[in-house]
Fold this sequence. Notes:
Structural class: alpha/beta
Number of helices: 7
Strand order of the largest sheet: 1-3-2-4-5
CATH architecture of the largest domain: 3-Layer(aba) Sandwich
CATH superfamily of the largest domain: Glutaredoxin
Order of helices and strands: HEHEHHEHEEHH
Helix content: 40-55%
Amino acid sequence: MKKENVLVIAVICIVVGGVWAYNNMKSTDLKAFDTATPGNASGQIQRATTIDWQAYDQGMGLAEKQDKPIFLYFHADWCTYCRKLKQTTFLDTAVLNYLKDNFISIMVDSDKNKELSTQWRVKGLPTLWFLRSDASKISSIPGYVNETQLLQVLKYIHTKNYDKMTLNEFVKTL
């Protein structure tokens, strides 16, 4: 084997190993930062590290009891943009904390619960529904949204500005 070929193989191995290490370290670093407790050496406050997903019926009951709006997320394991949401938007600390503090989050696998998907007229995935605490519809978003977009929508829904202005008008006030 020529020296050039060995060198190319070595470089490829290093790059692949580096990408793998970066991806594994990235998720570990996020968990370490987000789970810091008050009064520790880093001085960080405790943060949500995952969304507190509820089952459909349980979440609907909690929302009414706690008088909180509902974030209803339809997904499937095979859905590329659903996975992207989980790997990006749903890991954002601001999104996690806003959902935890202000919403009841419900996740529905559209393959496993076709009745609910039909009831909510889910045509594509992912589909995000926003509901009042009594389960009446406010609005939905089909497809992927990044963390900035989702946070703007969550604030819009939580503050009930959907009764006063459009989302675009609301975003201009932020």
